[in-house]
Amino acid sequence: MDPRSEVLLRxxxxxxxxxxxxxxxxxxxxxxxxxxxxxxxxxxxHGALAGRFGGRCHFGTEVPAGSFSAAVLFLPxxxxxxxxxxxxxxxxxxxxxxYLVGEKRGGIEGSARLLQGYGAPRKLDSAxxxxxxxxxxxxxxxxxxxxxxxxxxxxxxPGGALQVVSLPGVFSHGRLDRGTALLLEHLEGLPGGxxxxxxxxxxxxxxxxxxxxPDSRVSLLDVDAFAIAASALTLEANGLAAELICGDGIxxxxxxxxxxxxxxxxxxxxxTHYAATETLLRKSRQCLxxxxxxxxxxxxxxxxxxxxxxxxxxxxxxxxREGFRLYRAAKA
Length: 332
Ligand SMILES: C[S@@+](CC[C@H](N)C(=O)[O-])C[C@H]1O[C@@H](n2cnc3c(N)ncnc32)[C@H](O)[C@@H]1O
Known about the structure:
The protein is of the alpha/beta class. It has 11 helices and 18 strands. Helix content is 26%, strand content 30%. The chain binds S-adenosylmethionine.
């Protein structure tokens, strides 16, 4: 069980009424707290929880409907996302209790200060390298409007400047990642047909693809509901339309792709995690049409070429800059 869940269960008698677990890990906590419901914005966690606990699990960027006597936020990595989620929960909990649990190395001590806006926070427990905080919500904030927290910026892309709209918690919020910039400079010569932006974040690559290849079907896939919401805003800001898929890994993608273009994930929460990218590379042969290709940018130290060579029998380095490499591998 996740150590944050273990810390909650040490205080299980506090959670007798209807409880919302926001950002709960995909473990057995819901089995121990039968009065609790879960709210996830990560499709992998949601899929795992819904498989076990069905209708007790909600998915999306907004607090689910219903009335709760308390909510627990599992502290996310991004501070601005934590701030949005705490405001969204506290806005619904006037006179009720909001808990915050997180790992010390994830910054729980500092983030607990965010609770001061709603009442007088208290640390309830510290164990398993985690802390649990509580605040009785005396002064609920106004419910935050997610779109009002969007950051907008412009990037150079094939065909001219592209407007990017990003949201709290989304990769490279408010600025263009240097790896993505390198990828945007190398979108020429892709095969026509169905193109996938794998791990689309705020949708910058997918939007650039749709503009450069307007006749191609373009899909944008991400595990994070906030990324998909940001991608929808980015497409709209540029007058583009494409398919948005919120799902876990390449298994959630449509089949018969002509090209997979990606700045793929390598961090999950506070842990380094390559599984989604390794699975993508390993399954690339199955996902691509004959003559199709995968083009991806990654930190130079990541050992992706051997995986691509194993999967597709080739791997070319198209460009290299500032610690990033752009790889291309084709299905013969
Ligand atoms: C390095 S970021 C790139 C974002 C965007 N393409 C860009 O270049 O700005 C990788 C993205 O992959 C997403 N991701 C992580 N795990 C995933 C998974 N299992 N399935 C799909 N997307 C995932 C993350 O949410 C993140 O948005």
